[in-house]
């Protein structure tokens, strides 16, 4: 059925859109119509459907011709529960989704055969040609949820010789350059067995116009870029608006919840008049926000809204933890966590400024703990390489300064951007807007995310914590909260309470840290912290950029040719050449209290049990392993039933009904 739906979706969509053109006056009305489901004829059924869906952890809204509206009334919900019981373990394979053989081969090569819930739900809808808004948790596999059906459709058009060639057929818009690269890599890897048939390129604002023109010559079938870059290509005539109108069949906005906060609204608006009405639009997002609504209204027609929420409570290891401490003691606390091995490696530590990152790196280094700093100041090649090296487990601790500006701050900046006399520095800041060091980046095998500084808003928290517990992996997050950060901490708690529908706190105190352990290292930590001067920080920061700039070009050329040589350049090199005194490098046994020793042993044992240090190939790729189903963001959604999932039969019936409705109308 999905295969059948797939067979002609892009063409069908064009006919369907043309047919509904008269009914649908404009985007806004279309969206309102889709969301006004309960007022339509299928009110009762729709309500029952929604109740069942809420139980299941999936919400479906709208979708035009029939959308998700069931026709069987409240019975559907009850039956869904019972039938579903038999099918709890039912998983949908990529075979069942009717995808192109060459794509399935690429998936098999990656060790993937089962779709994640968001993929299971979104792929058939996209193959049917619907506009889709898909909201699902970080790390749930959203990228393949849109790449697979999009590539399937293009391969089909290509086989039929129906590809239009005046401009790219698909735009994938993402907020940052890092994401351009990542999505481009993912798409290329899926095209491994059909490289000659489709071409995917990524362009971003760091490239010269000449390079962009070269990349776009052809033109490619799929363009991965940022809204700013595509708007600039149009205004410079590198891509002609009329060609877009002729060729564009699909537009995808990934990490849509971040796009507007990356000052992309005007750029997206500049693109809108060139998008043909027949273009299918997909919006992917990890969080819900007013921005998503705005984009939906701006770009989508009568969209199908798919919301996958996590079902049930997270396993213990995924319950976020916090440590309350004075701001001045944060270095001490992180030292205790790392040095006494109370948290599982690899660790991603978030701080709110580049100086704090280098201060922390220098501080930890004096205790023999090597780390690397990832920040927006570094050249892009270095940033990409740091992420690759960290993913490949070449070092265990990464200190990241994410883009921690709140939306308000960004918008204030945007005001500056409009000033007629823009200084070089402001221009640089404007360019920096495309640097999103970590948001949406698929870090592999990060076990612990530490919020050394709290993020500016709850959405920032969701994106940070979403860097762990990805792709069948378990994970933990720990926030160090100073009294000054209690406000944002409460906001985050309230957000989590809302998500989990709970009255009580969703973040529990980190259990493995004893007062004794903290006090045992207090004096050493204070001494060392005092010895890290502002001058040292400045020098370390300067040195690091210098090294990375030198490395950057070498990196690009070398790693393009030798992608396996990741450890050639070390990003966690010591910043100082002074030897580490023994009393700081090794914590004397007598200082560690028995409880802490035990806790540390538990962490080590669980590490050994998980076989982390000897990764098998499949594990290293991050596709298998991890703990149980409930801790896995790729599996913890039940799109088809909390008690048990509804039978496939019923869903097939539902799709048939939708198709029938379409035919009837
Ligand atoms: N069907 C699958 N089975 C197992 N792993 C998968 C599957 N699909 C994708 N993955 C892996 O899951 C990881 C997370 O996927 P992806 O980056 O698409 O998540 P996401 O939902 O976009 O997260 P974010 O919102 O943080 O960007 C990736 O490493 C990806 O390779």
Automatic annotation (TrEMBL):
Q: Where is this motif: Q motif?
A: 92-120
Q: What EC number(s) would the UniProt record show? A: 3.6.4.13
Could you tell me which CDD domains the record lists for this protein?
A: DEADc_DDX56, SF2_C_DEAD
Residues of the Helicase ATP-binding domain: 123-306
Regions of compositional bias (Basic and acidic residues) in chain numbering: 18-30, 40-49, 649-665
Cellular component GO terms, alphabetical: cytosol
| Database matches in InterPro entries | DEAD/DEAH_box_helicase_dom, DEAD_box_RNA_helicase, Helicase_ATP-bd, Helicase_C-like, P-loop_NTPase, RNA_helicase_DEAD_Q_motif
Name of the top EC class for this enzyme = hydrolase
Pfam entry (one): Helicase_C
Q: Which residues form a coiled coil?
A: none
Chain intervals with Low complexity compositional bias: 1-10
Keyword ATP-binding belongs to the record: yes
In residue numbers, the region (Disordered) covers: 1-97, 612-665
Q: Which reaction does it catalyse?
A: ATP + H2O = ADP + phosphate + H(+)
Keywords annotated in UniProt: ATP-binding, Helicase, Hydrolase, Nucleotide-binding, RNA-binding
Gene3D superfamilies linked: P-loop containing nucleotide triphosphate hydrolases
- What is stated as this protein's family in its record? Belongs to the DEAD box helicase family. DDX56/DBP9 subfamily.
Supply the name of the protein: RNA helicase
Species: Oryza rufipogon (Brownbeard rice)
